[in-house]
Amino acid sequence: MEAVPRMPMIWLDLKEAGEFAFNAAVKKSAVSVPRDFEGCSTLRKYLGQLHFLQSRIPMGQGQDAAVPVTWTEIFSGKAVTHEDIKYEQACVLYNLGALHSMLGAMDKRVSEECAAGAFTYLRDHFPHSYSVDMSHQILSLNINLMLGQAQECLLEKSMLDNRKSFLVARISAQVVDYYKEACRALENSETASLLGKIQKDWKKLVQMKIYYFAAVAHLHMGKQAEEQQKFGERVIYFQSALDKLNEAIKLAKGQPETVQEALRFAMDVIGGKYNSAKKDNDFIYHEAVPALDTLQSVKGAPLVKALPVNPTDPAVTGPDIFAKLVPMAAHEASSLYSEEKAKLLRDVMAKIEAKNEVLDQFMDSMQLDPETVDNLDMYNHIPPVLMEKCAALSVRPDTVRNLVQSMQVLSGVFTDVEASLKEIRDLLEEDEAQERKLQELLGRVPPAPGSPPGLAEVSKECSKYLELHEKASFTNTELHRAMNLHLGNLRLLGGPLEQVRAALPTPTLSEDDKQVLQNLKRILAKVQEMRDQRMSLEQQLREMIQKDDITTSLVTTDRSEMKKLFEEQLKKYDQLKVYLEQNLAAQENVLKALTDANVKYAAVRKALAEVEHKWNTTVQTLVASYEAYEDLMKKSQEGKDFYTDLEGKAAKLLERARAACQASEAHRQQLLERELKKQPPPRPTAPKPPLQKKALDEAGGPEAAELGSLVLLDASLKGKQRMNKQNFLQAQPGEGLRAPRPSDDPLSMLDPLWTLNKA
């Protein structure tokens, strides 16, 4: 990924200056700076000199020397005027951050941290009411955007330097974290209204980048798994990277070609990695592929920070041009006092952040959401998704009947096809049986020449249709099973809403259970109240520190009294500190009470979770049945079309089978007659008087035996010759055959044998 094309970055427009009764030459050089690092240096110098001026002359809001200051607001283009020199400082500081963002978005990409530092200082040290583009929300958004882009620059360098995969993954994950913070700000309705038209474009780009850099993070986690020979983990990380990249591609519609090029490059890399890893694991390593949520999440590594801004740094501001106007001691004292305030704020914030971290971890472990701790209200209503399905079926009352009728028609056609194929098979089997009987009767396989064609083709086609029918039979069975599965649900959805509501599970809670719930909700409300109060006190402290300016007092205070003045001035924060200490101390008791309440809530929670699971399952099942209706109708129609076609083919094949079997039967009859004609004629003998069977037996000798054999042979042959289809099919080997009558036999030479046999 080290050669991946760069993603574009967001940069901010500079504000335009208006009226300010200050030296024209100084003003011009400050508001018309070149768009390069020299321009940044000029703005820093001007900012420092304004600070020096403000510390000596009362030019703040409401002070004696205040003059109008006008700047154009970025988003609306309106001119905004305040009689406050700090407004001039704030606008210059904003332009310093905007210019750094512009330079950072260029090829070198080395200025994003400076931009974040400028916006952070502006947010923390100046009022937010000057103009919309310097509101707290907008500045926080700008800070997160700049930090995210600074971390993005670091990520590019890390990939070019071939840093370790795990480190690159953590750097990329932090890019995602910064952009998520920025995205939350962009999704805020108040921020969106402030930004106007550019909000949508920024949001689309940031959302796309979130998925893109998440894909990069998981790509490098997969590479680390590869280095550790964890081939199952490698597959799931590469698969996750591919999924996230596909989401980024969806969100990249309308983005410039540079974005599309970067995404295509990433797809080539990640797609190739995933396909190779999956193939290797499937055919070589055979490791189980774990679920992604079972693996340790990638924790971001924030390796960039907002560079601090010191407006009085002489290395930046140059010599103080107002040094003779106000004693430097007063300025130095003011800086020292500012440091005391910053120290106080750092100490308080360290305590707040420590308690917040404990509280967040505790609440995460409890997995308690005050808004959903009891979701009893949801059981009083049919969910909208289900109401939508019920409404759709209410205007289609024939849904169930149409489905049943369609399946009945399908069953009828199915049965007809099955009957036709069975009859064809029976005809073929019967023909085979007759062939075997003929072979047994003649004692050999009948000669092939002259056999009727068509039976082999009929048999082959019958086998093919039977195979198709057997396969389709399974599908038909599954279709009927699916219909029976969804039919009851469709009837329920098409019925009265009271029946639908009654079909949904509802929890049954005792009075004790309800009391446990109420107690838990009360304590959770206390937790939220504690959070809100803590945030409010913190905000009050910040605002109080920001407004605390004792420069006027310092100018008139002796240097030896400075420390005492600081102590007196800092006492104004004691009351807020006490409130904060009480708030922080109360956390332990609140969490203990919450722990006890949660223990009692465990059984109720389990019961509610089970009912909710059943409720969700029931809703999903009913919705699935509705959505399956169209599919069932479609498949039913496809089945009818298939079997109608097969029925026509089977009917034609049945006709061919009948004709072929009849031809085969005629062929066997011809064979039989041919065999009879091949028998040699018996020797003629003188007529003798009729003999009884007993006389023949007594005569004995070879002549009598020969005569008896001829009689039996002749009777057998003539019986075969006379046999019609019905007698032939019923004859069995070894059974006696009826002696022929002279009128039946076309061979006149066998007439004496007929008389002898009859006698």
From TrEMBL:
One of its GO terms (biological process) is protein transport to vacuole involved in ubiquitin-dependent protein catabolic process via the multivesicular body sorting pathway. It is found in: Cytoplasm; Endosome. It comes from the Eukaryota. The keyword Metal-binding does not apply. Residues 27-359 form the BRO1 domain. Its main location: cytoplasm. CDD domains: V_HD-PTP_like. Residues 665-678 have a biased composition (Basic and acidic residues). Residues 414-444, 520-547 form a coiled coil. This is PTN23 phosphatase.
